[in-house]
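== Protein entry: sequence and backbone fold ==
=== Local backbone shapes as whole numbers ===
==== Amino acids and backbone structure tokens ====
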Amino acid sequence: MSPIADYGKIQIENWQNIAQKSLTQNEITSLISGEFRGGTEQLLTQQDQILTLKVATFSHSNGDLKKYLKNYSDNLLTITQYDLNVGHYAVFAENDRLTMTACLTELQQGTVTADQFKVTQIRAAFNTIQLWRWLRNQDQLIPHTCHWRSLSLSPITPEANKRLLHIWLTLNKTMPTL
């Protein structure tokens, strides 16, 4: 059994933390398959915008977000996007809030479907760090761990999608996967 994920307070430059709470298994297990290892939700503010950041770790996961995303779109292709630096992610609007979400692999590559997750995890297994951890019996060769991330920005502005992508990339640099 892997240790419980403790994200602590996540800092984002130029954003002020206004609230934080731990996510519970009951709140989150309907989103993603796997064993919930912990998570947090933070509210941050900058000028007139509110950013909601949710992160959680699931071990023994297939990384599939389809069930969760069906609440926002019947056609997964219409909300799934790809960025070379991010990987696959979903973006959808609800009320006056734009949300970007994905399962991150150990190499912080985003995935939305089980197939994307599987392929990305297999590629990650041939990373020298992952191979070294496996050879030292510290980890599975293919870890099947989803580091779920969700960023929601409100109100929606013409620059909201670009801002979410920028914040996502900033978090990739400053926030390690647990």
Helices lie at 25-28, 66-69, 76-79, 114-125, 128-135, 160-174. The beta strands are 16-22, 35-46, 49-59, 80-83, 87-94, 97-104, 110-111, 146-154. The longest helix spans residues 160-174.
